[in-house]
C-alpha cells in the first residue's frame, strides 16, 4: 500500500515503488524521520528496536521484509523455497508477544505455496501482492473495529487509553483509537486521557502526538494518575489494543494494561479491548502461555536518554502483561462485539 494522503494521522508504514518506508517511531514526536529499507535484516532491526511497533504494524512490515528478502533470489526452486522459510523464521524472531507477526508471515508463506510449480517470478509477485493485501485489509479492519466500538460509546464521553494502539501501530486508524477518528468524522467529541506508558512512552510520544495531529482532544497523564482521573468521574470507558488474545479471553498488551483494567473494575468503568481477528490466537489456551518479551534494563534506567537510577540497579522490564478475561468487558473485532464466555464466543466468531 502506498502513501495515502486521506489518512488523518501520520502514516507509519508504506511501500514506495521498490522498497519499504517506515516512519521512525523511536524519534517521534520531536523528529520526523523516514527509514527507507531494502533488506529483511533492516526490517528485523526496525521491528526489534521499535522503529516500527504495534502488533498489526509489525506484521505488515515483516511481510514486506519477506518480499525484500526473496525478490533477488535465483530461479532455482529448491533454493527459493528454503530461503523463503528461513527468512520468514528470521523475521518472526524479531519480537515474541504479538501474534500478528507470525500470523502475517504464515499467511504469506501459505499463499506462496499455492503457487508451487509456477515460475519463481510469479511466486515472488504473489508474495508482494499478499503483503499488500494484508496491509490494505488492516486499514479496513481497523475502521470496522472503530464502527463496532462506537456502538458502545456516546458523544462527549471521557476515554482512557494505554500505550499506542492508534494509526501509528497499524495500517491506519488504529484499533483502540479507530472510534476516535470515526467520531471526529461525525462531529462527535470525546475527551481522551492518554497514559504516558513507561518505560518507552508510547502514550506520550505517539498517542498524544497522533491525536493532536488529528485535532482530537487529548490530555496526557502519567501512568500513576489513571486511578485519580477515574475517581474524579472523568472516564466513562477504557479502550486498549492487544498483542495477543488467548483462547480463554486473557489479553496481553503493553505493560501497565493489567493495572488499568483492575482500576477500571474498581470504578465500575467498562474495559474494552480492540482486537483484529489476527490478534486472536486460539492455539494459546490461556494468558499464562503467552510469551512475554523482556526488554533491556536501559529502557527503565535511561529510557529518555538520561540516567534516572543508580548505576547497576537491578531492573525488571517486561514489555507486556496479561489481563485476565474476567476484567475484560468486551473484545471488539472487525466481526463485532464479543462478550464472555470468551472461550465459546471467540471460537464461534473466528470459525465464522
Ligand atoms: O511494544 P509496543 O509499542 O509494540 O506495544 C504495542 C502495544 O502494546 C499495543 O497496544 C498493541 O500492539 C496493539 S496495537 C494496535
What is this structure, in a nutshell?
The chain is an alpha/beta fold and 352 residues long.
Q: Helix share of residues?
A: 25-40%
Give the mean pLDDT: 97
- Please state the CA-atom Rg, rounded to the nearest Å: 20 Å
CATH class of the largest domain: Alpha Beta
Largest sheet: 7 strands, mixed
Distance between the termini: 27 Å
CATH homologous superfamily designation of the largest domain: Translation initiation factor eif-2b, domain 2
Strand residue percentage: 15-25%
Class from secondary-structure proportions: alpha/beta
The CATH level-2 architecture of the largest domain is identified as 3-Layer(aba) Sandwich
Count of domains: 2
Shape: globular
Residue stretches low in confidence (pLDDT < 50, at least 5 long) are none
Enzyme class: isomerase
Active site: 243 (proton donor)
Pathway: Amino-acid biosynthesis; L-methionine biosynthesis via salvage pathway; L-methionine from S-methyl-5-thio-alpha-D-ribose 1-phosphate: step 1/6
Binding site for substrate: 53-55, 95, 202, 253-254
Structural features, described:
The chain is of the alpha/beta class and 352 residues long. The protein has two domains: 13-142, translation initiation factor eif-2b, domain 1 (Four Helix Bundle (Hemerythrin (Met), subunit A)), CATH 1.20.120.420; 151-350, Rossmann fold (3-Layer(aba) Sandwich), CATH 3.40.50. It has helices at residues 40-48, 55-70, 77-92, 99-113, 120-150, 178-185, 202-213, 226-231, 257-266, 298-301, 342-350; strands spanning 13-16, 19-23, 34-37, 158-161, 191-195, 218-221, 237-240, 244-246, 251-254, 271-274, 280-281, 320-323, 330-333, 336-338. Strand 5, helix 7 (202-213) and strand 6 form a beta-alpha-beta unit. Helix 2 (55-70) packs antiparallel against helix 3 and helix 2 (55-70) runs parallel beside helix 4 (99-113). The radius of gyration is 20 Å and the shape is globular. 48% of the residues are buried. Bound molecules: 5-S-methyl-1-O-phosphono-5-thio-D-ribulose. 5-S-methyl-1-O-phosphono-5-thio-D-ribulose (MRU) is lined by residues 53-56, 98, 163, 165, 169-170, 174-175, 202, 241-243, 253-254, 319.
Amino acid at each position: 500500500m502506498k502513501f495515502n494522503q486521506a489518512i488523518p494521522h501520520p502514516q507509519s508504514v508504506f511501500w514506495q515503488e521498490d522498497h519499504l518506508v517506515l516512519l521512525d517511531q523511536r524519534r517521534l514526536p520531536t523528529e520526523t524521520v523516514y527509514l527507507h529499507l531494502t533488506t529483511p535484516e533492516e526490517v528485523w532491526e526496525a521491528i526489534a528496536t521499535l522503529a516500527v511497533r504495534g502488533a498489526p504494524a509489525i506484521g505488515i512490515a515483516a511481510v514486506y521484509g519477506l518480499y525484500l528478502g526473496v525478490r533477488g533470489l535465483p530461479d532455482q526452486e529448491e533454493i527459493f523455497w528454503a530461503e523463503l522459510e528461513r527468512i520468514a523464521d528470521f523475521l518472526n524472531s524479531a519480537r515474541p508477544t504479538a501474534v500478528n507477526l507470525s500470523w502475517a508471515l504464515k499467511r504469506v508463506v501459505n499463499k506462496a505455496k499455492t503457487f508451487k510449480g509456477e515460475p519463481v517470478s510469479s511466486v515472488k509477485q504473489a508474495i508482494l501482492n499478499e503483503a499488500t493485501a494484508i496491509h490494505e485489509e488492516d486499514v479496513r479492519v481497523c475502521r470496522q473495529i472503530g464502527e463496532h466500538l462506537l456502538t458502545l460509546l456516546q458523544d462527549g464521553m471521557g476515554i482512557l487509553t494505554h500505550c499506542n494502539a492508534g494509526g501509528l501501530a497499524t495500517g491506519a486508524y488504529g484499533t483502540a483509537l479507530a472510534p476516535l477518528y470515526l467520531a471526529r468524522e461525525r462531529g462527535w467529541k470525546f475527551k481522551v486521557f492518554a497514559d504516558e506508558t513507561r518505560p518507552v512512552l508510547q502514550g506520550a510520544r505517539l498517542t498524544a502526538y497522533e491525536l493532536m495531529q488529528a485535532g482530537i482532544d487529548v490530555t496526557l497523564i502519567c501512568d500513576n494518575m489513571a486511578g485519580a482521573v477515574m475517581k474524579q468521574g472523568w472516564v466513562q470507558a477504557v479502550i486498549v489494543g492487544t498483542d495477543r488474545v488467548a483462547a480463554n479471553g486473557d489479553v496481553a498488551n503493553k505493560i501497565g494494561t493489567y493495572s488499568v483494567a483492575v482500576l477500571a473494575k474498581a470504578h465500575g468503568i467498562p474495559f474494552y479491548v480492540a482486537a483484529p481477528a489476527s490478534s486472536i490466537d486460539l492455539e494459546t489456551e490461556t494468558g499464562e502461555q503467552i510469551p512475554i518479551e523482556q526488554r533491556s534494563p536501559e529502557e527503565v534506567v535511561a529510557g529518555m536518554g538520561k540516567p534516572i537510577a543508580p548505576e547497576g540497579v537491578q531492573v525488571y522490564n517486561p514489555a507486556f502483561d496479561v489481563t485476565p478475561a474476567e476484567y475484560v468487558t468486551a473484545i471488539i473485532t472487525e466481526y463485532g462485539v464479543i462478550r464472555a464466555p470468551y472461550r465459546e464466543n471467540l471460537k464461534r466468531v473466528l470459525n465464522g
